[in-house]
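Teaching assistant's notes for section 4

Start the section by putting this record on the projector. Ask students to predict, before seeing the second block, whether Acyltransferase family protein will look compact or extended. Collect guesses on the board.
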Amino acid sequence: MHSSQQRLYFLDWIRIAAFFLLVLYHTGMYYVNWDWHVKSPHASDTIEAFMMLSSPWRMSLLFLVSGVAAAFLLNKAGAGAFARQRSVRLLVPLVFGMLVIVPPQPYFEVVEKVAYQGSYLDFMKLYVNAYHGFCRGTDCLTLPTWNHLWFLPYLWVYCLLLAALAAVLGRPRWQQLGTSVANAMSGWKLVVLPVAILAIGRLALLNKFPHTNNLVWDWHNHATYFPIFMLGAMVAFHGALWQRMENIRFGALGTALGGWAFLMSYYAITDQMPPGQIGLWQDAQRVLYALVQWSAILAVCGFGHRHLQFDSAKRRYLTEAVFPVYILHQTLIIVFSQLIKPAHHGPVLEAVLLIVMTLSASFGIFEVVRRIPLLRPLFGLGRAARPVQAVPAATQAAA
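Reveal the predicted structure now:
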């Protein structure tokens, strides 16, 4: 077990990198054929395989790191205070985001998809009154919406469940549970047990509950993200487990990349097959997907533990910046994409411009927000900047 002085800085760096990967991923969503809010005239399947390099594991990794952060906060504050603090830190930016940050996304979506002719103010009147008339056939847009901020309500619910479990068990039994789980995940079980849980959830639930980001009806996602979040919370203080991940990092990376290659072949082959002939191929693909998902997480954590266990002023700055950037980035991508669309740039230049503009605007807004106490809670920041000091891993706004 880590001593109270041990700092898991590598998880802060991983969290920073994972959130910034979202900027690249959501920029990519503008250019692929997968359904998204708006689409580039250049949209194609060209980069879809590269998007799939991170798609299986990116959000799962964030829930794992958030579980670790939650464990440190829970250990420090106790179950009741932890639940209250997490509620303020997550729900305030969620409500603000749904009312202020997110609405430009569905506005441009209905302009593009259903040729909406009203002004933004006209749209906002419909938005706050939960208008459900923006439809293409049976596919109707739900308003108001949280879009990319779905991570916040999911994490809030998981934190409340964690607090309830810790309160029921009491600290000694909660710590004993964490020790038992960490000890169980050794040798082959470090790979097989999580893959089995992820694969069972995928096989049993994905057909019935495709991903919707509907909190009360998203049971496959819950079967994926909640166990991973709880795993992070239970093993946060057990340094031996992170060392085991480091020890198998190359094998885990090779497994993730090899599995990705097979997944790409599966998608290419089955795209040409009638649905009735896919059969067991689909079940095998779902087990392979779970293996890729967990192997990639093992590789990221393993390499991070090996190379990123250090502090710096950059880490402290980015740890504070990353949550406001997350809140802002998708709206900025969509708004900027529509502003520069009339320029008819080529897709490469246009994508670079979108990334640069999004990051520049995100950090510019962050620099304003961090200096105004009334704005800080709206973007998931503490009400007052804290003195620079080392803190346990990822405890600064685990979002």
